[in-house]
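Minutes, project huddle
Topic: does the predicted pose make sense with nicotinamide-adenine-dinucleotide bound?
PN asked that the exact inputs be recorded in the minutes so nobody has to dig through chat later. Recorded below.
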Amino acid sequence: MEITAVRFEHETLGQRVIFGSGAAAENLAREVERLGAPRVMLVAGESNTAAADLAPVLRPVVWFHDVAQHVPADVADRARRAAADAQVELVVSIGGGSATGLAKAIALTTGLPIVAVPTTFAGSEATNVWGITESSRKLTGVDARVLPATVVYDAALTLGLPRELVVASGLNAIAHGVDSLWAPRADPITQALALEGIRALQDGLRAITAHPTALEGRERALYGGYLSAVAFASAGSGLHHKICHVLGGSFGLPHAQTHAIVLPTVLAFNGPAVPDLEARAAAAFGAPTADGGLRELRDELEAPRALRDYGFAESDIDEAAAIILPQVPDSNPRPVAKSDLVAILTAAWAGTPLDQKEDARA
Ligand code: NAD
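Predicted holo structure (tokens), as shared on screen:
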């Protein structure tokens, strides 16, 4: 009998996903009915026009507006109290990862089901990962209660997203795909999802840039963002996510832009250690190398360039590297020393390729 080297355990998370451009209102109404939970809490920023359009369908008993990045603990507490006071039966989040994240914080302690309506490509809606920030430290965890029961995707809801956020959020989604290639629980299924996700995202982002008011590119990006996030949920956090988690939670850097900037440095660091995966990622990028493909895409999209443009100080690099080091997964394709993290952070801080780190400090 032939013995093969393919051995893995894979867990697929159970979730209902509804795709339909221009159909969010009817799909949401159907889901609220199906879940039999008419007392809805809407979690969405006040300025979110998608929420304003969809609120009449939901007729929420509470609309919680106070949405902030990385879910501050005091905001989560207030939202939970508001849900309890209004005897809420279902939480509907409309917005980016921050709105989804707050809905997850409510579900974590109340067990309430979530219907998520994403308006960015952040992908939090497809994961069972929660995050809450207290005293400048972001705590994260995995819990089945925070996985939205249903995701309602409608590409038309992303039309108002400013171009810079389309680009940063789209690259954040590509980062889910790339990091899933070598994350601790990566397997052939997460890798297949991630590679198709990367392919769809880069097509989608190029199409959105060329035709910002058309829906096709946005549909492709949402589809790719979902696949990459599903891959990430199963594969877990790799080196890239551990770095960005510390930069966001301890140094207050904006989520999507930080991912967009750090990704090329981590890909340049890890890629050569896994040549087969690097070649498959290169094919997904449609380029001779994955590193080159990502750089070309970033140039075309005029992606965020350097962490120093977002408030990260050069003097913070050493402390950040020290916080990240103990969190680096043992499964990373190559060993990571503190000096490697300093090199990665220095390149990301300066916006230069990893192998030009000496120039970066010039
Ligand atoms: P965000 O939700 O903070 O949105 C960024 C900005 O875009 C906000 O000002 C928001 O109001 C605005 N916006 C969103 N959609 C819009 C639209 N369609 N039109 C106009 N403006 C719009 O940012 P994000 O990058 O989507 O999410 C970041 C958060 O999500 C972070 O806290 C991150 O940790 C979390 N996240 C969690 C996971 C997970 O699996 N748990 C995955 C990805 C991201």
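Observations noted during the meeting:
- The chain is about 50% helix and 10% strand.
- Residues 356-362 have pLDDT under 50 and may be disordered.
No decisions taken; revisit at the next huddle.
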